[in-house]
Amino acid sequence: MNKILALNPFHGGSHRAFLNGWMKRSWHQFSVNTLSAHHWKWRMRHSAFHFADAFSDEFKTSDKALDYDVLFCTDMLNLAEFRGLAPPAIRNLPAILYFHENQLTYPVQEERERDLHFAYTNFVSAYSAESIWFNSEYHRDEFLTALEEWLPKMPDANSIKATVASLWEKSDVHHPGVDTPPSPPVSRSERNVPLQLLWVSRWEHDKGPEIFFESLRLLQQSGVPFRVSILGESYEQAPTVFEEAKRTFPNEILHWGYLENYAEYQKTLSEADVVLSTARHEFFGIAILEAVAAGCRPLVPRALAYPEVLPEEESFFHHNDPAKIAEFLGSYAANLNANRVRDDVMRERWYQLVSQYGWNQGVPRMDAAVDRVVSEWNQG
User: In what residue span(s) does the Glycosyl transferase family domain sit (predicted)?
Assistant: First the structure.
C-alpha cells in the first residue's frame, strides 16, 4: 500500500466522480485536498499557490516526506509551479498527472478565444510529471500530436521535438470507471409508448446542443411521435438553445434538468430507447456509457473517443448532420416494436461492452501503475 497525496483543484462532475470512485476501491491510502468546481480559469491560475501555501506550515522540514509516497493531481493544476512553491517534503514526491481535459484542443466557440497560456500550463505540468495518465487513447494522441504541431512555433524551440517525445514515453491510458447496474438491462419490447430519447451531456456549447435540438425539430416536423429527457449538468450560462427547446418541445419533454437522485437517474436511463450525442468534444463519454449499460441504443458521432469506447456496430454512429439523425430516428420509430425486440437481444451484449470499463477492472490497473511509479522513483 502507498500513501497518495491527491490534489483536485476542480472537485466536481467527472473530476470528483473519478477520484471518489478510485478511492472507494483502491488498495492505496489517500489524503485528498480539493477546491470546489467553480471559476476554472482561476483554479488553473491560483491552485498551485493555494495548495503549496496550505502545506507550508505542515511541512517545515524534509523529515515529513515519509507521510506520502506519491502525488496525484489533475490537468487543472500547474504542477511545475506547485513543485516550485511546495515544501521539499512535497515537491520531492513522484507525481502522476491525470488529464480529464486539455486546454490546447478543447473546443472554443471561436479560435481567437483560446488562451494558450492555459495550454502551456498543461504542457509544463506534463513535462514536470513522472507519469501522465489520459482518460482515452484518443485524448492522449490528440493532445500530444497537437503539442508537436504547436510548440515548434515558439521562438528558439530547437529542443521541443525531443521534449514531446519524452511525454509520449511516460504517457498511459486509464479510463475512468463507469457505474453499471448490478444486472443487465430490462426489456423495452413490452412497452406501448412512443420513441424515448435521451440527452445526458453537460449543457455546454462543446456538446453540440444546437445539432441535437435541430435534429429533434426535424423529427417533430415530420410528425414522428417521441418523448425526450434532457438530463446532464447545467450551469449559470447555459446555451440559449436550451430555453428555446423548452418552448419548442412542451409536449415531448419528459424530464428537464439534472437528476440528483441516482436511482431516479438510472430509472430514466432504463426507460429510454436511444441516447443521442451530438458532441464536438468528448475525451471519454461516461454519461453515454452509463446509458448504454442501462440498455439505451447509442447514437453518437463517428469521431472523438466514441469509436474507441463503442466499437460494436456501424448503426451506433452519425456524422452530426441533423437531417440524417432525424432520418435515422424516424426510421427507428416507424418500426419501433420490431426495433425494440431486436435491441432487447443486444442489450446484454451492450451491457458487457460497457462492463469492461467498470471500476473493478480499472482500479487494479491504476493501483498497479501507482506501485510502478513509486518503485521506479525509489530505485532512482
Answer: 195-327
Judge whether 340 and 273 are in contact, CB under 8 Å: yes
Q: What is the pLDDT of residues 55-101, one digit of tens each?
A: 987 766 555 555 899 999 999 999 999 999 999 989 999 999 999 99
Q: What are the phi and psi torsion angles at 173 (to 5°)? A: -115, 125
Q: In whole angstroms, what is the distance from residue 162 CA to residue 281 CA?
A: 29
Angle, helices 241-248 vs 209-221, to 10°: value is 20
Which CATH number covers residue 106?
3.40.50.2000
In angstroms, rounded to a whole number, what is the distance separating the alpha carbons of residues 158 and 41? 30
Nearest to 188 by CA among 197, 178, 179: 197
- Domain containing 248: what range? 195-355
| pLDDT category of residue 110 using cuts at 50, 70 and 90 | low
Query: What angle separates helix 322-334 from helix 209-221, to the nearest 10 degrees?
Result: 50
C-alpha cell at 308: 474507441
What span, in angstroms and rounded, lies between the C-alpha atoms of 104 and 90? 28
Residue 188, in any domain of the structure: no
pLDDT for 114 equals: 78
Looking at the structure of the chain, the number of domains it has is 2
Look up the pTM and report it.
0.93
Question: Other C-beta atoms within 10 Å of 328: how many?
Answer: 18
pLDDT of residue 353: 94
**Helix-then-strand count for the chain, H and E:** 15, 12
314 and 371 both lie in a single domain: no
